[in-house]
Amino acid sequence: MADCKKVSKLNCIDLSSQDIPTSVSLLKQACMDSGFFYVTNHGISEEFMEHVFTQSKNFFHLSLDEKMKLLRNEKHRGYTPVLDETLDPANQLHGDHKEGFYIGIELPEDNPDAQRTFYGPNLWPDSDILPGWRQTMEKYHQQALEVGRKIARLIALALDLDVNFFDRPEILGNPIAILRLLHYGGQVSDPAKGIYGAGAHSDFGFLTLLATDNVSGLQICKNKDAKPQVWEDVEPLKGAFVVNLGDMLERWSNCIFRSTLHRVLGNGQQRYSIPYFVEPSHDCVVECLPTCQSVQNPPKFPPVKYEEYLLQRYRETHADLGTYSKH
């Protein structure tokens, strides 16, 4: 049976608003309903966002040989070719019809923390080939993290926690924060044949900020067990982030807040998007928040260490690096 489809109406959170109670109320409603919402007036200028997208396109316009020189490493930094990632193996014929590029927290190799799974030096294109590219991405990485922290403070209030609960050193004080550039090359998706731009999945972690161009494709499914599944289009909103919650926040909140199934369907157009994954520190232990449990509603999940959980999810969804011949 074919999927049903409609357009989703998401709450819009204005980060410049001084009316914090209203912002928290809108956010809480969105987090309980679908875990998806728009964020506007976030502090990153439209001009700079356009420059980031231009630089992203400049990278993906390089030859495959040039891009493969930066093939992702064991630290999950660098280039991911088309079909490298399979987000919904039960329903996908091949991998996702998208290519990507991972950029994490930059640490020099002599920093003791650089040995951690999701820290260390990034892979960068040669500055002669893409001048200013690294500087642009590093600046965006820093600015997006600040937006993520602002949203985390509203989430804390929505969960009846101290406003700075997530700012603590063991959570977002020393975060894993991953910027990913994505390019969908114009493949037309066909769910009936298992062909997707990005297979249906929920995000792994805490919080995702998604910047998009004006090409549609993102869809969400609020009830994954419904037959048939109802998929709602999430339309791009100029100047806004689409924000969604990940599995770790669903766990933290004892399923009060939701990490929702979503996918990307290609419609024949080139599409560029830039998700930014805001994740707690490696050693953060995620266990049910005190405000989200009671005698009637005990914790549904055991505690889990963030680094171990995230690494396992990456292993499950990405091709083994040994499948690629060395370039």
Automatic annotation (TrEMBL):
Residues 175-280 form the Fe2OG dioxygenase domain. Keywords: Iron, Metal-binding, Oxidoreductase. GO terms for molecular function: dioxygenase activity; metal ion binding; oxidoreductase activity, acting on paired donors, with incorporation or reduction of molecular oxygen. PROSITE patterns: FE2OG_OXY. SUPFAM superfamilies: Clavaminate synthase-like (SSF51197). It comes from the Eukaryota. InterPro entries: DIOX_N, IPNS-like_FE2OG_OXY, IPNS-like_sf, Oxoglu/Fe-dep_dioxygenase_dom. Belongs to the iron/ascorbate-dependent oxidoreductase family. This is Isopenicillin N synthase.
